[in-house]
Specification:
This protein is mainly beta. Helices cover 6% and strands 53% of the residues. It has 2 helices and 14 strands; from the N terminus they run βββββββββαββββαβ. InterPro entries: Ependymin.
């Protein structure tokens, strides 16, 4: 999956009358997630830990996620590298790449609580407990998902819970626990793994085009 992050900011600006958030250029952290989704087969419990590093200036975003879903452990590494328009995804020791478009905005970004609600409707018709800003959205295992983020300034760690209904029936619950710090302690996290550098091990898979609006930094 795509990775994930907590938005920190130090000031606000007004652009075309919309609130904007300015975030630190370098930060990293860890997120613990428990997601429970009710299906026809019963509850789907998904536990994961994500370690992420964000470099706004160099337009790089690295994330490693480990967890258990459907009783099966998994370990996935993602590296968004916008200067090369490439997303690297490493799973089971195999590296695959896909194209990305655009670039991360290096200064401020819209605080899109309406955007979050509107785009969540692509996957779920009802959004309960809306948040102030967006997170990462996409499709995993054929199911649309959305990680919302509730920013509370520099208060870290942060606990957040999100719930969603489909046809007035409680469908999913996500609990996130963040611990975030400024700065990057290990810049090598932005170096593609060896399996991505070695051409013979690099397989290109059509993940589709990943657009930068999926990342709100």
């Amino acid at each position: 999956m795509l990775l994930l992050g907590l938005l920190l900011w130090s000031s606000f600006a007004q652009v075309r009358g919309e609130p904007y958030m300015c975030s630190p250029h370098l930060w990293e952290g860890k997120k613990w997630t428990l997601q429970i989704t009710h299906t026809d087969q019963g509850p789907d419990v998904w536990e994961s830990t994500s370690e992420f590093s964000v470099d706004i200036i160099g337009q790089r975003f690295a994330s490693r996620e480990t967890g258990v879903r459907f009783g099966q452990p998994y370990d996935i590494f993602y590296l968004y590298y916008y200067p090369a328009n490439t997303l690297f995804r490493v799973h089971d020791g195999k590296c695959r790449s896909s194209a990305i478009e655009g670039a991360i905005k290096p200064n401020c970004l819209n605080m899109p609580d309406q955007y979050a609600v509107e785009n969540l409707n692509e996957f779920l018709p009802t959004y309960v407990n809306g948040t102030y800003c967006g997170g990462v959205r996409g499709v995993r295992d054929g199911v649309g998902y959305f990680h919302s983020i509730t920013p509370y300034g520099f208060n870290s760690p942060v606990m957040e819970q999100t719930q969603g209904d489909v046809d007035s029936v409680p469908t999913y619950r996500v609990s996130n626990y963040y611990n975030v710090t400024s700065g990057i302690k290990d810049p090598t996290v932005f170096t593609p793994p060896l399996s991505c550098i070695q051409t013979q091990d690099l397989a290109t898979e059509d993940f589709g085009i990943h657009r930068p609006e999926s990342l709100f930094f």
